[in-house]
Specification:
eight-stranded antiparallel beta barrel, mainly beta, 169 residues
């Protein structure tokens, strides 16, 4: 059994909310062959978090589609760094914030199994030195950095669909 992941000491939830571009991930079925992947978060009045995942399947020319919609619950209220994300109200998945830029410009999110992981940023690109630093940090968490795959992101000038906008299904 692997040791527990080490999360950041504190996450300012209102500051964390909004769009995060998926820079790299250990892809699972919904993320395979995705372009322009975006994770979005919004605090709800009940303290839970709405979560959307959108991407273009197969190419930059494909329509932006909402691939998943979920509701997260913060499990560790002291740090706000451990969540359970609920899909279809019955499937609960751990979401642990392992590394977070002090200015909330990038984040590394993991799962206790180490079969899932995400490196995300507020912009569509992350400079290579920062990306490599984050990737190296995954090693101390028990990840194999070679499992992470960069997600193609369109140039920063391209328009982004907000979570409330209509999307194709």
């Amino acid at each position: 059994m692997k040791p527990p992941l080490k999360t950041v000491s504190h996450v300012d939830l209102p500051r964390y909310m909004g769009d995060w571009y998926v820079i790299a991930n250990i892809p699972y079925f919904a993320e395979k062959n995705c372009f322009d992947s975006i994770e979005s978060y919004a605090l709800r009045p009940d303290g839970k978090i709405n979560n959307w995942f959108r991407c273009r399947k197969g190419s930059f020319e494909a329509p932006m589609e909402q691939k998943a919609s979920a509701v997260a619950t913060v499990v560790d209220k002291a740090s706000n760094a451990i969540w359970t994300v609920h899909f279809f109200k019955i499937i609960g998945v751990k979401y642990e914030i392992l590394d977070l830029d002090p200015n909330y410009q990038w984040v590394m999110v993991g799962h206790p199994s180490r079969r899932y992981g995400w490196i995300m940023a507020r912009s569509r690109t992350l400079d290579e030195a920062t990306y490599q630093k984050i990737l190296q940090g995954t090693v101390s968490q028990g990840y194999d950095p070679a499992q992470f795959h960069k997600v193609p992101q369109r140039a920063a000038s391209a328009a982004t669909i907000s979570p409330g906008a209509a999307v194709s299904h």
